[in-house]
Design goal:
By secondary structure, the protein is mainly α. It has a 3-stranded parallel sheet. Strand 1, helix 1 and strand 2 form a beta-alpha-beta unit. The radius of gyration is 17 Å and the shape is elongated. The two termini are 24 Å apart.
């Protein structure tokens, strides 16, 4: 690879970014002592340019965001780990509010049915 980063172990003494206040930053902080890197919070779009330039060695973000950058520029980006955490996101409503529950489930199904649209929403809102 361009900068010799192929595994998490290759991040030793490097800089790893993640979105401020995100699960990615929580994971980056949790793993930094294991792999010997420093962390920096920021905007994913800015940090991807830093990775491309070699100023930052990696970013920890949602898989769909990472996949989007890799697919759009495979000469610049690669996946080095896709199993750092399992994140389950839940939504709740008042008990027996079936009308709202049905509408929310319809909206989720509609969003999930169009993978390209779903990935764009993730990028727009998270990154």
């Amino acid at each position: 690879t361009k900068y010799g980063i192929k595994t998490m172990e290759d991040l030793k003494d490097g800089l790893v970014g993640a979105g401020n206040g995100t699960t990615g930053m929580d994971v980056a902080e949790d793993l930094k002592d294991d792999y010997g890197y420093s962390t920096q919070a920021g905007e994913i779009a800015v940090m991807t340019e830093a990775v491309k330039a070699g100023a930052m060695q990696a970013i920890i973000t949602e898989k769909c965001v990472a996949d989007s950058y890799i697919n759009s520029d495979p000469a610049s980006y690669q996946m080095i780990a896709d199993d750092l955490t399992v994140e389950e996101i839940k939504g709740i409503t008042a008990l027996d509010n079936n009308a709202l529950l049905d509408k929310v489930n319809e909206a989720i199904a509609s969003i999930m049915a169009d993978e390209a649209n779903y990935n764009q929403l993730i990028l727009d809102w998270f990154g």
